[in-house]
């Protein structure tokens, strides 16, 4: 393992899954002051999320599947970042196939990304003595508990890993174990951000995601169908707030490992749908489906640790975030020829 190297100009930062929803927003922020290497294979992401960055001299895209080992020094396009002398300082590991509508198509890729892929990323971190932040998931906490509304980092992660979603849920938990083991054996600084439901522009609008589906229905003047109980509740954190939390987490002391990032405020799902219809100037009705299979009401994150240690709080109001999402959806629908409102 190489020791820490002198930073010659700007930090070199690797972001796996950097062309995805959250990853691309992270690239946007970090590229302002650092060299950003965005690695993705577009399995469930899209080049349109990063095409505005491709000509930025602080940005470089590498098309690679992290389940295959990689050597950043082999990429001649990265020579301007002086990796041979400076190495990599930070790695944000966000890569994992995410597609609600096509989840079944990516089960093997999901489990491999969250095992072999995480191991490959950590091998690069060890070689560079780089800090690593892993984008984990609130799914590890399972469904909402009757005795406790807010879930803290020290609460047990209890869920059924032998379900159709086990590739993702257990994959995230196994990745956390790999990170903790590498930290223990090699002494590297690892961060685990357990991210709760996040929303904002660049969410795929035709992939079966809750808010984009609401917006599409409202813009099409169709009923907003909610497959959930009528009293279902939801918490939503805007993507820029989550990005801010991740960066603060990366910059925290080495003894800070697991941190919840999400909104600790909840809303009735029906109220969110009504707000979407209002902002879309739509007459869509809200209709609850009788089947509630697959609906899981998650607990709310206890974010006292993030508040106290990182100085972080989610700041974007739901109404403001929804307006941004609706504007984005209108734009993407125009591009696809599906704009009707």
What does this structure look like?
- With 341 residues, this protein is α/β, with parallel strands linked by helices.
- The protein is built from nine helices and 15 strands.
- It has a seven-stranded parallel sheet, with helices on both faces.
- The mean pLDDT is 91.
The CATH topology annotation of the domain at 12-195 reads as Rossmann fold
What is the H/E string? EHEEHEHEEHEEHEEEHEEHEEHH
Using only CA atoms, what is the Rg?
Answer: 20 Å
Architecture of the domain at 12-195, according to CATH? 3-Layer(aba) Sandwich
What is the CATH level 1 assignment of the domain at 12-195?
Alpha Beta
Count of alpha and pi helical runs: 9
Q: How far from one another are the termini?
A: 57 Å
Name given to the CATH homologous superfamily of the domain at 12-195: NAD(P)-binding Rossmann-like Domain
How much beta, percentage-wise?
Answer: 15-25%
Total beta-strand segments? 15
Low-confidence stretches: none
Helix content: 25-40%
- Order of strands side by side in the largest beta sheet? 3-2-1-4-5-7-12
Largest sheet: 7 strands, parallel
């Amino acid at each position: 393992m190489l020791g820490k190297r002198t930073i010659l100009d700007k930090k070199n930062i690797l972001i796996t899954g950097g062309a995805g929803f959250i990853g691309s927003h992270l690239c946007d922020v970090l590229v302002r002051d650092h060299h950003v290497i965005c690695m993705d294979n577009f399995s469930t992401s899209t080049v349109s999320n990063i095409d505005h960055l491709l000509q930025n001299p602080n940005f470089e895209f590498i098309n690679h599947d992290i389940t295959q080992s990689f050597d950043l020094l082999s990429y001649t396009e990265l020579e301007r970042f002086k990796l041979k002398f400076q190495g990599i300082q930070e790695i944000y590991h966000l890569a994992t196939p995410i597609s609600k509508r096509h989840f079944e198509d990516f089960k093997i890729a999901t489990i491999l990304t969250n095992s072999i892929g995480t191991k490959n990323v950590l091998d690069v971190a060890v070689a560079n003595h780089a800090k690593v932040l892993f984008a984990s998931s609130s799914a590890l906490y399972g469904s909402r508990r009757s005795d406790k509304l807010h879930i803290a980092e020290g609460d047990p992660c209890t869920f059924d890993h032998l379900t159709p979603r086990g590739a993702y849920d257990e994959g995230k938990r196994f990745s956390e174990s790999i990170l903790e083991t590498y930290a223990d054996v090699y002494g590297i600084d690892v961060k685990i951000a357990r991210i709760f439901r996040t929303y904002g522009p660049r969410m795929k609008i035709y992939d079966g995601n809750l808010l984009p589906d609401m917006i599409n229905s409202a813009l099409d003047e169709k009923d907003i169908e909610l497959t959930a109980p009528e009293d279902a509740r939801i918490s939503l954190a805007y993507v820029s707030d989550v990005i801010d939390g991740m960066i603060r987490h990366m910059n925290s002391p080495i003894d800070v490992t697991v941190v919840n990032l999400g909104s600790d405020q909840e809303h009735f799902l029906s109220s969110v749908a009504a707000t979407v219809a209002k902002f879309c100037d739509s007459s869509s009705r809200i209709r609850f489906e009788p089947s509630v299979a697959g609906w899981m009401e998650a607990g709310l994150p206890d974010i006292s640790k993030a508040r106290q240690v990182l100085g972080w709080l989610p700041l974007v109001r739901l109404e403001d975030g929804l307006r941004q999402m609706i504007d984005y959806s209108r734009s993407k629908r125009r591009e696809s020829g599906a704009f009707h409102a």
